[in-house]
Amino acid sequence: VPQLEKRINPLAKLGYKKCIVPKSAEKILSEIHSEGMEISGCKNLKEMIHTVFRRG
């Protein structure tokens, strides 16, 4: 996803608490982003669905 950091920053300002990104971008964004947003990286669609709909 091009310019992913620029796309996530407005979400944090709007009050979003979680963001799901490609696994390859998770480490980079976690280091850069520190406004209280949880960054979850997923390697495929199945993992993304599990992350979004997990219970608990």
Summarize the structure.
This protein is α+β, with helices and mostly antiparallel strands.
Please, could you describe this protein's structure?
Helices cover 52% and strands 18% of the residues. The protein is α+β, with helices and mostly antiparallel strands and 56 residues long. It has one domain. Strands 1-2 form a two-stranded parallel sheet. The model has no long low-confidence stretch (mean pLDDT 86). This is Endopeptidase La.
How do the strands of the widest beta sheet line up side by side?
Answer: 1-2
> SSE string, helix = H, strand = E?
HEHEH
Termini separation comes to 29 Å
Q: In angstroms, what is the radius of gyration?
A: 11 Å
SS field, number of helical segments: 3
As a percent range, the share of strand residues is: 15-25%
What would the average pLDDT be, to the nearest integer?
86
Q: Biggest sheet, open or closed, and with what strands and sense?
A: 2 strands, parallel
- What structural category characterises the helix and strand content? alpha+beta
How many individual domains? 1
Helix content: 40-55%
Query: Quick one: how many beta strands?
Result: 2
Regions with little confidence, pLDDT below 50 for 5+ residues: none
Based on Cα principal axes, name the global outline: globular
Protein name: Endopeptidase La
